[in-house]
Amino acid sequence: MTTHMKKKGKKAKHSDVEMDKAMVRKAVHKHERNMHPGKKITKLSGGGLGRMNMERKAVGRNMAKVMAQRGR
Predict the structure, then answer these.
(1) How far is C-alpha 31 from the chain's CA centre?
(2) Fewest Cβ atoms nearer than 10 Å: which of 6, 13, 30, 71?
(3) Would you give the distance in Å from CA 48 to the centre of its chain?
(4) Residue 64, exposed/middle/buried by CB under 10 A (0-12, 13-18, 19+)?
(5) What pLDDT digit, counting tens, does each position of 24-66 carry?
(6) CA of 23: how far to CAs of 8, 16, 27, 54, 71, in Å?
(7) What are the helix and strand counts (H, E) for the chain?
(8) What is the rounded CA–CA span in Å between residue 9 and residue 4?
(9) Are 64 and 55 contacting, i.e. CB atoms less than 8 angstroms apart?
(10) Is residue 54 a contact partner of residue 42, using CB atoms and an 8 Å limit?
(11) pTM assigned to the model
């Protein structure tokens, strides 16, 4: 097991989570610079479901799934 992987049953330390986020951010920006030159680099959000979570609360979980399958 490498040092960056967490052991089963252990919670990740705060610094480890921050390192993971920084690593992902760096990789995404590197991809965008190489594959999409001349375009703005994406600002990564904090995460979560956002819009979809609000829809589920508004119409209920099952109806939100049906709407997503239909394509709205």
Answers:
(1) 16
(2) 71
(3) 7
(4) middle
(5) 899 999 999 999 999 988 888 766 556 667 767 777 777 877 8
(6) 22, 10, 6, 29, 33
(7) 3, 0
(8) 15
(9) yes
(10) no
(11) 0.45
